[in-house]
Amino acid sequence: MVTGVLTLWRHRQVLRMLVLRDLQRQYTKFRLGYLWTIIEPLGMSIVLWFVFTMLLGPRKLGLQPYLLFLSVAILPWWWFTKGIAAMSRVFRRNRGELRNSLLPTEVWILRVLLVSMMEFILSLPVILVGMLLTGFWPSPLIVLFPVAIALQFLLMYGLGLLISSSAVVIPDLARIVRIAMRAMFYLTPVLYSISNIPAAIRPFASLNPLVAPLGLYRVGWWPEEHESLVHFGVSLVVCLVIFVVGWIVFRRLEPRILKGG
Fold first, then answer.
1. Residue among 183, 231, 225 at smallest CA distance from 81
2. Residue 260 CB: number of other CB atoms within 10 A?
3. Distance CA 161, CA 169 (A)
4. Of 16-30, 41-55, 179-193, which one has max mean pLDDT?
5. In this predicted model, what pLDDT tens digit does every residue of 121-157 receive, in sequence order?
6. Could you tell me the CA-to-CA distances from 251 to 46, 158, 161, 231, 255 in Å, in that order?
């Protein structure tokens, strides 16, 4: 694993160039360009806010102000779903380039992950818009926001290694991942607060690896949103286990990836 990290570090300039090129291609395809990075999650937050506060009436679904509460979680969720979906297809879509490339195989996964992370960072003004609209500002605990980004990055890299390499062996895996993502949206505290989960099943909910990073994202505005240290520790351990398992599976399947399946 250490050797893999050093290999990636040696290729950091090439990786940086590839990420910037992918971002440039992505934004030049549309007239609004970068603005779509803000419009999509902001639009989704507004629609969900309208449905759960206006159409369905006031209900104790999350914390107030609900629009900001949604926005803070929608952005990392958007990063998670787009990144995992892209990584699940990366090897099957780039077979020809992969065979002729001199780059380490894991660079292809990291490239996709970094592109999705940059889109997430570029979409953060959505949270600023939410704060301006609601007049609700963060506490000093906002310093944990970068920690949440690092934790989610580690989780997604592990899942990306696991899913992308397994998809070479299991062609239908990308479709299974899409279905799983739809289910996870409701099983993850995006629309609701961790405190809305009944205490009896909260320990099982902490097995969801997204619980820890989402709690860290929100705790800067809502200190009561932090999970107990035990539950947070469980979610953190699950993230680390996924990363290690993903790395091991990727290394074992790498010869098959290079052969094309």
1. 183
2. 12
3. 13
4. 179-193
5. 989 999 998 899 888 999 999 999 999 999 999 999 9
6. 42, 12, 9, 31, 8
Instruction: Name which of 54-68, 197-211, 236-250 the model is least confident about.
Output: 54-68
- CA Rg value for the chain: 19
Residue found by looking up tokens 């099957």 in the block? 92
Q: What is the pLDDT of residues 67-82, one digit of tens each?
A: 899 999 999 999 999 9
Q: How many CB atoms lie within 10 A of CB 189?
A: 21
Q: Please say if the pLDDT value at position 66 is more than 70.
A: yes
CA dihedral in degrees (229, 233, 235, 240; nearest 10)? Answer: 160
- CA nearest neighbour of 236 among 159, 109, 144, 148: 148
If you average pLDDT over every residue of the chain, what do you get?
Answer: 83
Q: What is the DSSP string of 40-70?
A: HHHHHHHHHHIIIIIIS-S-SSS-SSHHHHH
Nearest CA to 181 out of 89, 81, 86 is that of 81
pTM over 0.90: no
Contacts of 233 (CB under 8 A, 6+ apart): none
* Confidence grade of residue 106 (pLDDT, cut at 50, 70, 90): confident
